[in-house]
Structures are given as C-alpha cells and as structure tokens.
Predict the structure of Superfamily II DNA and RNA helicase.
Amino acid sequence: MNFTEFDFKPAIVAAIKKSGYTTPTEIQQQAMPHLMQGLDLLGLAQTGTGKTAAFVLPTLQRLAGEAGKKVKALILTPTRELSEQVHENIQMLGQGTRLKSCTLYGGVSKAGQIQKLRQGVDIVVACPGRLLDHLNSKTVDLSSIEVLILDEADQMCDKGFLPDIRRILKQVPRQRQSMVFSATMPKEIRCFVEEILTNPVTVRVNHEKPTATIKHALFQVAQTQKTALLKHILQSEPMTTTLVFTRTKHKAKNLARQLQQFGFKATSLQGNLSQNQRKKAMDGFRTGTFNILVATDIAARGIDVSGISHVVNYDVPDTVETYTHRVGRTGRALQTGDAYTFATREDARMILSVERSLGQNITRKKVDAPLSNQDHNASTAAPSASTDEKRRGAPVSRRKTKGKPKQQRSNSFDFGLSAS
Ligand code: AMP
C-alpha cells in the first residue's frame, strides 16, 4: 500500500513526501481508510508504530481548507512530552494547510497559551489538567470541536485523568468524530471508551516480538565513529553472514565500498541498482561470495537468506516495526543470531520504544580498544551528516574531545538511557 491510495490533498501529499515517509505503517494502513470516511475508531497500538500520523493525517485532511479562528480538533495526551510530539507531527504534516495547532499543558505559564488561543488555533493538543484550567477561565472554547482524539488512553487512566476527561467531554459537541488510541485495553477504560466512541471500528497492531533466540546489543556511538566501530566489531568477532542497515541509499553504497577497501567481502543492496546488479548482490550474499550486505530497508524487503548470524543497525530504524523486521532476518528457525544497534544521542527515544516493545532492556556494549578513524573518511556519512550534527549541537563528549588525537577520542557516550 502506498500513501497515494489515500487521495490526500496536495498540501498534505507534499508534506508527507518532505517528511520522508514512503510507505504507511501497519496502523496507518489499517486505521486511515476508516478515519478518512469519518468513522469513530479504537486503535490498539503503542508508540513507535506510527500511530500519531495515523490520526494526524486524516484530521488534517478533514480540516484543510477550513483554517480559521475556531478550535475544531482536540487531542488529549497524558504527558507534556507526548503533547509536544503530536504538535510537532501536526506542524510537519500540516505545513501548507494553513492549519494552526498549539499545546496546552501545565508547568508553563498560561499567558503564552492564552495569547496563542486568542490569535486563533484549529487544533489543540492538551493534557487534561491544564485544559480544564482554561475551560474554567473560559480562555478556550470547545463548542466547535469536530474531531476528538484520546492518545495513550491507558496511560491517562493510570495517571487518574478519567474524571478530568469526563468533565472536558461535557463541553465538546456530541456530534463529532472520535478516536481513542491505547496500547492496552484494561477493564477500567473499556466502559469509558464505549462512552466516547459511537459504533467504532477497532484496529489492532500486534507487535510481533522478535524471536527469543536473538541477542540484542546496543553501542552508543557518535555518528562519525560508526564506521570505525563496525570495522572493529567485524574484525574482532566471528560474524559469518552480516546484514547491515543504513538509512539512505548513499550511505549503503559508500559503506559497502569502504568495507571492501578495508578488505571485507561486502556489497550493497539499495534502490539505485539495476535489476541485474540487485540479483548479483543477492546471489553473491546467498552463495558466500559476499558475507556482508549493506542495505536500506526498502531494498532489503523480501531478502530471504538463511543463516544470517548478525544484523547491524548502523542507523537506528524509524519505527519499532522496522526494528522487528530488520532483526527478524537473523535468529530464524531457532538459530541464534545477534542484533547490534549503533545509537547516537538523538536515537534515545526510539531505543526506549524498542525496549518497551521487546519487554526488555537492550544490553549496552562498549568497545574498550581505541577506535581508529584512520581508514574512515567522510564519504561514508551522508554529505550533510556532520553539518546536521553541528546544527543540532554535537554531543558533549565530542565537543570536549575536539583537538585531541583522533585515536584517543571516547568510543561511546552515555546518552542517559535508563538501564533499569
Ligand atoms: P509514533 O508511533 O507515532 O510515535 O511514530 C514513531 C516514529 O515513526 C516517528 O518518528 C514517526 O515520525 C515515524 N513514522 C510515522 N509514520 C511513518 C511512516 N509511514 N514511515 C516512516 N516513519 C514513520
């Protein structure tokens, strides 16, 4: 399935393209056709599945062309962080629609929020407590709401927000489209959900957990050290057949070339290859001419090679599902396999989502030997990678090590992922 099948308005199509989304995730494929028809929906899906865009895109589609001064969509979330995340997703996918959104949550001044509301917003993303505050002081009006969304309903229940939400619902029109998203459906919220939704469609994304025979390990590493780290691991461990995933075609091609220069039997599989080249790469990997295949997710679809000993996430995947798909290439049919993930500081949130989905913490690994960058040249990273890192603010450990000889740089850094 492709995003073009949804018949989104041109501004939304352009934003999807710009965001880099190519294929709808499973929850998007299941939920969006119903939501685009205006139906109520119960979505059983957790963070990392692409659930935010699953409700944001149909909402933008419905409201695009109606941008104005009245709040037409309300999204309730259990935490400020989630409110911000949803708001960012709306801004990214709604650019070009002229729809405005704002967040309302506690812990920050109300004045700024009131000013935004006065200027006119179409979509409010709020935590229940602060929204009630605004309703009590009549600084927000929910009488024009057409779309109501509860995100992470189970978390809201855990946090004791249900009475607040009931109060909020009294101020929202009954005639509306409603959606509830929740990772689980405990008894306490089942009746509550029935109160909110009318004849809902239920969709469920079952997280298929990777097989228990896979060992997961995480290396916390700066972007610029990834190739040196990969080289080190390939040299120091028996890795019979290794599948390496990169985010872009450019990186896949350059990384394979660099590994060849280091003396490894590596090749790449990426979208720029002709059918013939693709076949050659696949056959070579299958028969052992190459024991390392560097691929992008799209190119790797359908790879069915038995006996892959290692999967390396050179770049962290965008969704939990993709992680599951990638690492599922190893450890098949009760063979054991190792899944190594190279994570930078920016990947912390996705790693937590993956761990939540796995139901376990991923073992942190460190390389004690100094990583040599000598063979590593800038061409492996996408041309803009180092510039991007500078713009986002290079990790502290990197900034501190500036000027030191390359070999003495720290091989990893702790980006504060919980180990508990
Ligand atoms: P969520 O489950 O909504 O928190 O989304 C998890 C991550 O998946 C976010 O970084 C989204 O930007 C990303 N995402 C959502 N939809 C897609 C898609 N169709 N293709 C690639 N990434 C996506």
